[in-house]
């Protein structure tokens, strides 16, 4: 194939690949956008939540904050104080132990009076008023827009009220908190945790939460597994086991911890042995995040789509430049990289980028790109094949002879055809070079001899007799004719459509012996034929007859007088083995590997060596190969040769 054609094909394929790459990248971008925007509608948010929980749970260990303390109504306290609910004067006694606390959050809703102990509510209200930093909870019911409030006398003495609602996601896991809630009448409720900051006069930390422009729903950056915060048993604090100033300047949360009180929820930090976290500890995580101003933010859908597409684009760029093996490794590292980047974004920058869309599209990029690139390569290979078959009829003829090659549709099959066509083209080029060499050297030699003979004859002093002149002319003309015949026979054997039919190889051998009989008689050579009645093979009779004749004539030509030439058959169910042996000059070991190559002659140096073209045995090898057979030679210089031909046996012809 000319160099300019190669460059044009390469440029065309490169253009197709560039176009396919742009289309694939555009499609993947649109797909990333759709999956990012509609991830909740098509169920991808469930996978995102799973990745979120996994990533959050892998966060670096954190030291429990020293300014947040949890007083737990645990099983041990219930065992010592008595069955729940306790009298409210017990809570009043506990508040007396917490003087100096920055803010105290009572995670208990006292909605109804206790008729059994009517004075307890007044006792608790007095203790709340005396402490001056107690925050009481309220519960907002969005379906009815009602607010469940503590008793009026308790509410009046509390430093502040905050709604304590926790909204689990659809899978029951608490990941987010709504810090502000605007009622239909315009009144705004503040969540329990920032309300404690308000009581604790944390104005700087509270400002971003109260900002109307800020997002009120935030992802909770859980600081650790259940039990992370400093927790103290209710009964121990009530008994005064801690100094009076132990809880000074601390945020104190008082709430249920007992497994039987039901105030527990699943969180991203849950694990097999601790599947839930108490509501009080969830409040502690919200309080810490509010105090530090550290939340996990989720970008808008459009920004999430762009961020999710960045690894997809990087993979697409690498797919265009790398081999399939390296591309697969790149894809693997890209998927791992998405998880690592999400971890860094969450735990370093407080940003959660839902990864499912990016993971799915990145994974899809590999098969999609290789599908489209193979389609482009297949189109280019098909175009190259069509051009080769259009420009070189011999290739078209070779391809059209095979049904399997006509039905080849996949890229490997088409590439195999292209390689075969290129191989045929190389062979054609080799034949052209051999033809030029044949014409420039072998054909010119006898013609030059004729011209030299003619020049000598023109000189009056050195003229030959007519008989001598005709003898030399006959020799040179015979050499030329032999060269042409051998060359044509070899070209025909390589290019012709070989029609194979059942033939009796024994009959063909007998015909060849008859053709060589006259030449054998001239050199007194004995032709021995170990007869067999039938040796059926699938073959082309004229070509096989020419092969056998060439081998017998060579044995006569390249041997002494009184030589013996023997042909014999060995038959089996699958093969027919024909051996032709002689006691002639033999062939040296250095010539054996090249014996069947065109223009190679094993006996070209001797003075009495017969003339030849070196094409006879190349013709023999070509014909036998076209019959899916095999030919080999055993020879030793001075001891003769044995040529063995093996062909596939077949059933006898009915005709």
TrEMBL record:
Membrane-spanning segments: 21-38, 302-320, 327-345
Q: Which residues form a coiled coil?
A: 371-398
Enzyme Commission code(s) on record: 2.7.13.3
Protein name per Swiss-Prot or TrEMBL: histidine kinase
What SUPFAM superfamilies does the annotation carry?
ATPase domain of HSP90 chaperone/DNA topoisomerase II/histidine kinase, Homodimeric domain of signal transducing histidine kinase
What does UniProt list as this organism's lineage?
Bacteria, Pseudomonadati, Pseudomonadota, Betaproteobacteria, Burkholderiales
Keyword vocabulary terms for this entry:
Coiled coil, Kinase, Membrane, Phosphoprotein, Transferase, Transmembrane, Transmembrane helix
Originating organism: Alcaligenes endophyticus
* Catalyzed chemical reaction(s): ATP + protein L-histidine = ADP + protein N-phospho-L-histidine
Domain Histidine kinase, by residue range, is: 438-651
**UniProt xrefs under Gene3D superfamilies:** 1.10.287.130, Histidine kinase-like ATPase, C-terminal domain
The organism's place on the tree of life at top rank: Bacteria
Q: Offer one Pfam family short name for this entry.
A: CHASE2
